[in-house]
């Protein structure tokens, strides 16, 4: 009798869920055959598979693919993977779907309600508060930091001279971490010199844990995550990160001699000044935004710099034009005093960076989450749907980028303004990257400095990158080139 009741209940649930799924319109989108227990979660088992599997899904099923999360029988949790320009434009150009997907919550232990994660009125308030901190007049003052920290990078890269291969990633990542520490917190960390290694370790471990939680059913849910060793590792590393930021904040707050008209204010200085003047940001809110800037501002720019240098190694004719632009600006001087205006005048280098970020967007996917039923193109997308905007795939769509696999910086000389959502390495719309101008200036500063000092060549045999989506696009086997010092 009990078995009969259970069967009836299960059948009732099944037909109810089927009815919901048909009503919500997601049946319009094609989907791969799901696993009966895992749905489509089992399609990706490591970060190295994310890009290739996503590209294969788009190739096999079309520009928008429906995916199920969890057991097929019960699953009403669905996701859409899309490179459809019109759906992406609909999402990014409006203010209806602003909430980030559930995966972003894995960063919440570190970043709290920082700008990357928060939503609703809280996000709108903080976005409005933080926007003035990225005014070009303030960005100008950061250029000397880019330059001085970049000089240390050049010294460190000298270790690679005469070697058959140089993995750029560890060198560049420490450089961008040093830059972000000094610009975000006003603190020189000297990470490139081997100091504060505990902080570097904690950043790496915290990022690793957050990324791996996405791919692990046991670690995915907070209710079971505590059973894993990484739960306790994360607590240890977060204490290091939070203690460091709190100590810097308290030190600045207690320093009564702080000049509020300081010529080169760090991001933290601006937040503290605004908080004191307006009394609307708590110490914890300031900590969350500074940590968010630390997280979002180092790995992304490191990825952009490394992949651009990798592309330059493969395209000597492009590298020659980048060098020529530098010589037109500075002659044969390898260590000129760079200004904001001169960085702005590096137009061809900007095209090169944009093309690299098209082929290898630092943030290859972004996610949004529907909080209410939403109609798009005659289809009802129900609330609680995760929508993954696959930027890597969108950037390789031949409808918008002829010969999409080719590295052609000149395509950005006259990019079609009628398709603003076809190229979105910094996202777009109201939730676009608040620090995109900062990132472009930093990448120009570092890449131009390296090109002036070194000829970048491919390894022999040529190093093939193994793309890995770790929140930020990386190469699992490094980004290896040959560096030859210029005379």
- CATH domain class of the largest domain: Mainly Alpha
Contiguous helical run count = 20
Q: Distance between termini?
A: 88 Å
How many separate domains?
2
Please give the number of β-strands: 11
Strand fraction: 5-15%
CATH topology of the largest domain: Cytochrome p450
Rg from alpha-carbon coordinates: 24 Å
Q: How confident is the prediction overall: mean pLDDT?
A: 89
**Structural class by secondary-structure content:** alpha+beta
Low-pLDDT parts are none
Q: How much helicity do the residues have? A: 40-55%
CATH superfamily of the largest domain: Cytochrome P450
Question: At CATH's second level, what is the architecture of the largest domain?
Answer: Orthogonal Bundle
Keywords: Endoplasmic reticulum, Heme, Iron, Metal-binding, Microsome, Monooxygenase, Oxidoreductase, Signal
Family: Belongs to the cytochrome P450 family.
Binding site for heme: 433
Subcellular location: Endoplasmic reticulum membrane; Microsome membrane
Give an overview of the whole structure:
- Helix content is 50%, strand content 9%.
- The protein has 487 residues and is α+β, with helices and mostly antiparallel strands.
- The strands form four sheets. The protein has a four-stranded mixed beta sheet with strand order 1-2-7-4, sandwiched between helices. A three-stranded antiparallel beta sheet has the order 3-11-8. Strands 5-6 form a two-stranded antiparallel ribbon.
- A hairpin with a 2-residue loop joins β5 and β6.
- Keywords: Endoplasmic reticulum, Heme, Iron, Metal-binding, Microsome, Monooxygenase, Oxidoreductase, Signal.
- One of its GO terms (cellular component) is endoplasmic reticulum membrane.
């Amino acid at each position: 009798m009990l078995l009969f009741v259970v069967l009836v209940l299960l059948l009732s649930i099944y037909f109810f869920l089927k009815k919901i799924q048909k009503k919500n319109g997601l049946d319009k989108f094609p989907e791969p055959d799901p696993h009966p227990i895992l749905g489509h979660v089992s399609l990706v088992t490591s970060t190295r598979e994310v890009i290739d599997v996503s590209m294969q899904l788009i190739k096999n099923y079309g520009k928008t693919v429906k995916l199920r999360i969890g057991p097929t029988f019960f699953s009403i949790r669905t996701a859409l993977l899309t490179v459809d320009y019109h759906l992406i434009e609909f999402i990014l150009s409006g203010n209806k779907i602003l909430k980030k997907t559930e995966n972003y919550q894995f960063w919440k232990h570190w970043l709290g309600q920082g700008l990357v994660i928060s939503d609703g009125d809280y996000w709108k308030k903080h976005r409005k508060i933080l926007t003035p901190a990225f005014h070009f007049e303030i960005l100008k003052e950061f250029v000397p930091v880019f330059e001085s920290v970049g000089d240390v990078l050049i010294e460190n890269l000298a270790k690679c001279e005469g070697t058959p291969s140089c993995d750029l990633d560890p060198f560049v990542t420490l450089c961008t971490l040093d830059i972000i520490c000094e610009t975000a917190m006003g603190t020189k960390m000297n990470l490139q010199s081997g100091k504060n290694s505990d902080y570097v370790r904690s950043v790496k471990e915290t990022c690793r844990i957050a990324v791996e939680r996405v791919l692990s059913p046991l670690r995915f849910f907070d209710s079971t995550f505590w059973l894993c060793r990484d739960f306790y590792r994360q607590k240890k590393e977060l204490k290091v990160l939070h203690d460091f930021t709190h100590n810097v904040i308290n030190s600045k707050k207690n320093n009564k001699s702080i000049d509020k008209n300081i010529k080169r204010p760090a991001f933290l200085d601006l937040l503290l000044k605004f908080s004191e003047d307006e009394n609307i940001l708590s110490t914890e809110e300031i900590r969350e935004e500074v940590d968010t800037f630390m997280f979002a501002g180092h790995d992304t720019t490191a990825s952009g710099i490394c992949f651009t240098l990798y592309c330059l190694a493969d395209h000597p004719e492009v590298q020659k034009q980048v060098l020529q632009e530098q010589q037109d600006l500075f002659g044969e001087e390898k260590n000129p005093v760079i200004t904001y205006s001169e960085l702005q005048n590096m137009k061809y280098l900007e095209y090169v960076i944009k093309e690299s970020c098209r082929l290898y967007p630092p943030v290859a996917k972004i996610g949004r989450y529907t909080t209410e039923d939403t109609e798009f193109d005659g289809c009802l997308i129900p609330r609680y749907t995760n929508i993954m905007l696959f930027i890597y795939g969108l950037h390789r769509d031949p409808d918008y980028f002829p010969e999409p696999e080719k590295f052609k910086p000149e395509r950005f000389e006259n990019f079609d303004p009628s398709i603003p959502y076809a190229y979105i390495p910094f996202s777009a719309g109201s939730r676009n990257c608040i620090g995109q101008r900062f990132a472009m200036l930093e990448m120009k500063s570092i890449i131009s400095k390296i090109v002036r000092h070194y000829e970048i060549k491919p390894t022999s045999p040529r190093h093939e990158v193994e793309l890995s989506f770790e929140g930020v696009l990386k190469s699992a086997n490094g980004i290896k080139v040959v560096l030859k010092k210029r005379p």
